[in-house]
Write a structure and sequence with these properties.
The chain is mainly α and 121 residues long. Helices cover 69% and strands 0% of the residues. Helix 1 crosses helix 3 and helix 2 packs antiparallel against helix 3. The radius of gyration is 18 Å and the shape is globular. It starts with 6 loop residues before the first helix and ends with a helix.
Amino acid sequence: MGTSLTVQQMFEAISKYQYHVHHVDYATLSMKQRMQLMRDYVLAMQVEQVELLQELPWKPWKYAEDHSCLIDMQKLIEEWVDCLFFLIDQALVLKISAEDVTETFQAVLTKNYARKKENAI
């Protein structure tokens, strides 16, 4: 279907896009600029989450129990990726690296498995 990108490559692509399209250089932002961008990205993420939800048959009063409506998977994926885009933007604003994300992801995943194992009956 296409070439997979690493987390690092996604971070780099979004940073490059923001620089070329919106003239945002994450390396030179002041704290005030970081906080303004963070507010903007959090709000944008909330809007994208709603748009993602709108692509699903989540309204019990509107859809049959079998959720027989058609889901446009391409639109659903696009909305999910929009969310990912703003999430990476937030990481860049907060100076969280792709390495930070992958290392912490592994640590949290390991902790979650251990927690589940401890609580297993």
